[in-house]
Amino acid sequence: MQIMTTRPDVAQCVRFEVAKSSDDSAIAALEGRFFGDVALGLGEVAYYRRRDQALVLIARDDDDNSLLGYVVASLDSRGGGAALWIVTLAVQPRARRCGLGRTLLRRATAFGRKLGANVIKVQVNVRNQPARRLYESCGLTTTRRLPNYYAPGRHAYLMERPLRAPSQRGEL
Ligand SMILES: CC(C)(COP(=O)(O)OP(=O)(O)OC[C@H]1O[C@@H](n2cnc3c(N)ncnc32)[C@H](O)[C@@H]1OP(=O)(O)O)[C@@H](O)C(=O)NCCC(=O)NCCS
Fold first, then answer.
1. What is the pLDDT of residues 5-24, one digit of tens each?
2. Domains of the chain by residue range
3. Which atom in ligand 1 lies closest to the alpha carbon of residue 133?
4. Sheet-wide strand order for 54-61
5. pTM of structure
6. For residue 109, what are the contacts with CB-CB under 8 A and spacing of at least 6?
7. Which residues have C-beta atoms less than 6 Å from ligand 1?
Protein backbone atom coordinates (compact mmCIF):
# COMPACT_ATOMS: atom_id res chain seq x y z
CA MET A 1 0.00 0.00 0.00
CA GLN A 2 1.17 3.51 -0.67
CA ILE A 3 0.07 6.66 1.04
CA MET A 4 0.97 10.11 -0.14
CA THR A 5 2.24 12.24 2.69
CA THR A 6 1.61 15.93 3.04
CA ARG A 7 5.05 16.96 4.26
CA PRO A 8 7.96 17.45 1.88
CA ASP A 9 10.55 16.11 4.34
CA VAL A 10 8.76 12.79 4.63
CA ALA A 11 9.25 10.02 2.10
CA GLN A 12 6.40 9.91 -0.37
CA CYS A 13 5.84 6.18 -0.30
CA VAL A 14 5.36 3.92 2.67
CA ARG A 15 5.30 0.14 2.65
CA PHE A 16 3.42 -1.92 5.24
CA GLU A 17 4.81 -5.32 6.22
CA VAL A 18 4.36 -7.94 8.88
CA ALA A 19 7.50 -7.69 11.01
CA LYS A 20 10.29 -10.26 10.74
CA SER A 21 12.81 -11.29 13.38
CA SER A 22 15.31 -8.90 11.80
CA ASP A 23 12.96 -6.02 12.72
CA ASP A 24 12.81 -6.81 16.45
CA SER A 25 15.78 -4.70 17.50
CA ALA A 26 14.70 -1.62 15.53
CA ILE A 27 11.20 -1.84 17.02
CA ALA A 28 12.57 -2.31 20.54
CA ALA A 29 14.91 0.64 20.06
CA LEU A 30 12.02 2.93 19.08
CA GLU A 31 9.97 1.55 21.95
CA GLY A 32 12.68 2.56 24.40
CA ARG A 33 12.91 5.99 22.85
CA PHE A 34 9.19 6.70 22.93
CA PHE A 35 8.05 4.89 26.07
CA GLY A 36 11.08 4.70 28.37
CA ASP A 37 10.50 2.52 31.42
CA VAL A 38 7.19 1.14 30.14
CA ALA A 39 8.51 0.20 26.69
CA LEU A 40 8.30 -3.32 25.28
CA GLY A 41 11.69 -4.99 25.44
CA LEU A 42 13.29 -7.06 22.72
CA GLY A 43 11.94 -10.31 24.17
CA GLU A 44 8.40 -8.97 24.32
CA VAL A 45 8.53 -7.75 20.72
CA ALA A 46 9.69 -11.22 19.67
CA TYR A 47 6.97 -12.84 21.78
CA TYR A 48 4.19 -10.93 20.03
CA ARG A 49 5.75 -11.41 16.60
CA ARG A 50 5.70 -15.17 17.11
CA ARG A 51 2.24 -15.33 18.64
CA ASP A 52 -0.47 -16.60 16.27
CA GLN A 53 -3.12 -14.32 17.68
CA ALA A 54 -1.01 -11.19 17.53
CA LEU A 55 0.17 -8.85 14.81
CA VAL A 56 3.36 -6.84 14.63
CA LEU A 57 2.97 -4.61 11.59
CA ILE A 58 5.58 -2.11 10.47
CA ALA A 59 5.58 0.85 8.11
CA ARG A 60 8.77 1.31 6.11
CA ASP A 61 10.10 4.20 4.14
CA ASP A 62 10.09 2.86 0.60
CA ASP A 63 13.15 4.92 -0.31
CA ASP A 64 15.63 3.84 2.35
CA ASN A 65 13.80 0.94 4.08
CA SER A 66 13.97 2.67 7.45
CA LEU A 67 11.30 1.97 10.05
CA LEU A 68 8.71 4.76 10.12
CA GLY A 69 6.24 3.22 12.53
CA TYR A 70 4.73 0.07 13.94
CA VAL A 71 1.76 -1.36 15.75
CA VAL A 72 1.59 -4.40 18.03
CA ALA A 73 -1.91 -5.81 18.53
CA SER A 74 -2.93 -8.95 20.37
CA LEU A 75 -6.17 -10.86 20.78
CA ASP A 76 -7.34 -11.69 24.30
CA SER A 77 -10.12 -14.28 24.33
CA ARG A 78 -10.23 -14.81 28.09
CA GLY A 79 -13.47 -14.20 29.94
CA GLY A 80 -15.83 -15.02 27.09
CA GLY A 81 -15.24 -11.99 24.85
CA ALA A 82 -12.59 -11.41 22.22
CA ALA A 83 -10.75 -8.13 22.68
CA LEU A 84 -8.09 -6.85 20.34
CA TRP A 85 -5.60 -4.94 22.50
CA ILE A 86 -3.40 -2.32 20.94
CA VAL A 87 -0.27 -3.21 22.88
CA THR A 88 1.76 -0.39 21.37
CA LEU A 89 1.69 1.97 18.41
CA ALA A 90 4.23 4.57 17.38
CA VAL A 91 5.34 6.65 14.43
CA GLN A 92 8.72 8.34 13.96
CA PRO A 93 8.51 12.10 14.63
CA ARG A 94 9.51 12.94 11.04
CA ALA A 95 6.55 10.94 9.69
CA ARG A 96 3.81 12.10 12.06
CA ARG A 97 0.54 13.77 11.05
CA CYS A 98 0.62 12.05 7.68
CA GLY A 99 -1.97 9.40 8.47
CA LEU A 100 0.44 6.60 9.35
CA GLY A 101 -0.80 6.09 12.91
CA ARG A 102 -4.39 5.86 11.71
CA THR A 103 -3.46 3.46 8.90
CA LEU A 104 -1.58 1.16 11.28
CA LEU A 105 -4.56 1.20 13.64
CA ARG A 106 -6.99 0.39 10.82
CA ARG A 107 -4.88 -2.51 9.65
CA ALA A 108 -4.57 -3.88 13.16
CA THR A 109 -8.34 -3.59 13.50
CA ALA A 110 -8.89 -5.51 10.27
CA PHE A 111 -6.63 -8.25 11.66
CA GLY A 112 -8.70 -8.33 14.86
CA ARG A 113 -11.96 -8.57 12.95
CA LYS A 114 -10.65 -11.57 11.04
CA LEU A 115 -9.87 -13.26 14.36
CA GLY A 116 -13.37 -12.50 15.63
CA ALA A 117 -12.60 -9.59 17.95
CA ASN A 118 -15.71 -7.78 19.09
CA VAL A 119 -13.96 -4.86 20.74
CA ILE A 120 -10.72 -2.93 20.32
CA LYS A 121 -9.04 -1.64 23.47
CA VAL A 122 -6.03 0.44 24.38
CA GLN A 123 -4.53 1.94 27.51
CA VAL A 124 -3.19 5.42 26.95
CA ASN A 125 -1.37 7.86 29.18
CA VAL A 126 -3.76 10.59 30.32
CA ARG A 127 -1.17 13.17 29.20
CA ASN A 128 -0.74 11.74 25.72
CA GLN A 129 -2.95 14.10 23.75
CA PRO A 130 -1.81 13.05 20.25
CA ALA A 131 -2.59 9.40 20.94
CA ARG A 132 -5.91 10.18 22.60
CA ARG A 133 -6.91 12.35 19.63
CA LEU A 134 -5.89 9.62 17.22
CA TYR A 135 -8.00 7.02 19.01
CA GLU A 136 -10.95 9.40 19.31
CA SER A 137 -10.72 10.16 15.60
CA CYS A 138 -11.06 6.42 15.02
CA GLY A 139 -14.16 6.12 17.18
CA LEU A 140 -12.68 4.89 20.47
CA THR A 141 -14.05 6.42 23.65
CA THR A 142 -12.71 6.60 27.18
CA THR A 143 -14.49 4.10 29.38
CA ARG A 144 -12.32 4.08 32.52
CA ARG A 145 -9.60 5.99 34.27
CA LEU A 146 -6.80 3.76 35.53
CA PRO A 147 -5.11 5.58 38.43
CA ASN A 148 -1.38 4.93 38.88
CA TYR A 149 -1.44 2.52 35.94
CA TYR A 150 2.17 3.10 34.87
CA ALA A 151 3.59 4.13 38.25
CA PRO A 152 2.48 6.20 41.23
CA GLY A 153 1.10 9.45 39.84
CA ARG A 154 1.17 8.22 36.23
CA HIS A 155 -2.37 7.51 35.16
CA ALA A 156 -3.96 5.97 32.09
CA TYR A 157 -7.30 5.91 30.36
CA LEU A 158 -8.85 2.77 28.98
CA MET A 159 -10.25 3.57 25.53
CA GLU A 160 -12.33 1.15 23.52
CA ARG A 161 -14.73 0.68 20.67
CA PRO A 162 -17.04 -2.19 19.81
CA LEU A 163 -16.16 -3.74 16.47
CA ARG A 164 -19.58 -5.05 15.53
CA ALA A 165 -20.71 -2.01 13.60
CA PRO A 166 -18.52 0.02 11.25
CA SER A 167 -17.53 3.39 12.68
CA GLN A 168 -19.37 6.31 11.16
CA ARG A 169 -16.51 8.75 11.65
CA GLY A 170 -13.34 6.75 11.93
CA GLU A 171 -14.06 3.98 9.40
CA LEU A 172 -11.97 1.50 11.34
C1 LIG B 1 0.21 8.98 18.56
C2 LIG B 1 0.94 8.76 17.24
C3 LIG B 1 1.10 7.26 16.97
C4 LIG B 1 0.10 9.36 16.10
O5 LIG B 1 0.69 8.98 14.87
P6 LIG B 1 0.49 9.86 13.54
O7 LIG B 1 0.98 9.07 12.40
O8 LIG B 1 1.08 11.21 13.74
O9 LIG B 1 -1.10 9.99 13.51
P10 LIG B 1 -2.00 10.34 12.22
O11 LIG B 1 -1.23 11.22 11.29
O12 LIG B 1 -2.53 9.08 11.68
O13 LIG B 1 -3.15 11.19 12.91
C14 LIG B 1 -4.49 10.76 12.90
C15 LIG B 1 -5.30 11.73 13.75
O16 LIG B 1 -4.87 11.68 15.11
C17 LIG B 1 -4.96 12.98 15.70
N18 LIG B 1 -3.61 13.45 16.04
C19 LIG B 1 -2.43 12.83 15.78
N20 LIG B 1 -1.40 13.54 16.28
C21 LIG B 1 -1.95 14.63 16.88
C22 LIG B 1 -1.40 15.74 17.58
N23 LIG B 1 -0.06 15.89 17.76
N24 LIG B 1 -2.24 16.67 18.07
C25 LIG B 1 -3.58 16.56 17.90
N26 LIG B 1 -4.17 15.53 17.22
C27 LIG B 1 -3.35 14.58 16.73
C28 LIG B 1 -5.60 13.87 14.64
O29 LIG B 1 -6.99 13.79 14.76
C30 LIG B 1 -5.14 13.18 13.36
O31 LIG B 1 -5.94 13.47 12.26
P32 LIG B 1 -5.60 14.78 11.34
O33 LIG B 1 -4.13 14.78 11.08
O34 LIG B 1 -6.42 14.53 10.11
O35 LIG B 1 -6.03 15.94 12.16
C36 LIG B 1 2.32 9.47 17.25
O37 LIG B 1 2.16 10.79 17.70
C38 LIG B 1 3.37 8.77 18.12
O39 LIG B 1 4.04 7.87 17.67
N40 LIG B 1 3.51 9.22 19.38
C41 LIG B 1 4.52 8.63 20.30
C42 LIG B 1 4.14 7.21 20.66
C43 LIG B 1 2.77 7.14 21.31
O44 LIG B 1 2.41 7.95 22.15
N45 LIG B 1 1.99 6.12 20.91
C46 LIG B 1 0.66 5.86 21.45
C47 LIG B 1 0.70 4.82 22.51
S48 LIG B 1 -0.92 4.53 23.20
1. 555 445 468 999 999 999 99
2. 14-162
3. 17
4. 14-18, 54-61, 67-76, 83-91, 119-125, 154-162, 141-151
5. 0.92
6. 84, 120, 138, 163, 172
7. 34, 89-91, 96-102, 122, 124, 128-131, 133-134, 137
Interval between CA 80 and ligand 1 midpoint (Å): 32
Q: Would you say 73 and 84 are in contact if contact means Cβ atoms under 8 Å apart?
A: yes
pLDDT at 152: 96
DSSP characters for 128-169? -HHHHHHHHHTT-EEEEEEEEEEETTEEEEEEEEESSSPPSS
Ligand 1 atom nearest the C-alpha of 122 is 48
How many Cβ atoms are within 10 Å of 140's Cβ, its own excluded? 26
Give CATH for domain 14-162.
3.40.630.30
